[in-house]
Amino acid sequence: MSSNPPPGQGGVLSTTKATPTKSANANVEVLYERSFILDLKQLPPVVRQQVQEFVFSDFFQTNHLQFLPDFRQMGNSGIFYRFTLAEQLISIEVTGQIIKFLRVLPKPNV
User: Fold this and answer.
1) Fewer beta carbons under 10 A from the terminal one: N or C of the chain?
2) Any bridge partners for residue 81, and if so which?
3) CA-CA distance, 95 to 2, in Å (whole number)?
4) pLDDT in tens, 1-31
5) Is the pTM of this model over 0.90?
6) Could you give the count of Cα atoms lying within 13 Å of 78 in the half-sphere of its Cβ?
7) How far is residue 28 from each of residues 18, 50, 75, 86, measured CA to CA in Å?
8) What confidence tens digit (pLDDT) does each residue in 43-88 have?
9) Domain 12-106: which CATH number of 3.40.630.10, 3.30.428.10, 3.40.50.300, 3.30.2310.20
10) 10 Å Cβ neighbour count for 23?
């Protein structure tokens, strides 16, 4: 996937796939923010491969976002969430039938 967004889409790369959510018939549009793609490129190769495999393939088999590892709402907005994968925090924005991957950052050592 190219790091340059398609013309007319600003900083968002998109793909539309049918994915099961609460209803098996629901279509969900998945978008990838430019910052997400840039973060992905900065990951070590092994971690990058794990994250890419999940967000571009396995994610579409997810029936409920709540079952993602360490899935939590961010703040009080109701549309921003995060989950962990391969010691990385992945943030998403969920608005209706649109899920946008925003960032992928190393999980801080606390």
Assistant:
1) C
2) 73, 92
3) 25
4) 444 444 444 455 545 443 333 333 368 899 9
5) no
6) 2
7) 6, 22, 24, 24
8) 999 999 999 999 999 998 888 899 999 999 999 989 999 999 999 9
9) 3.30.2310.20
10) 7
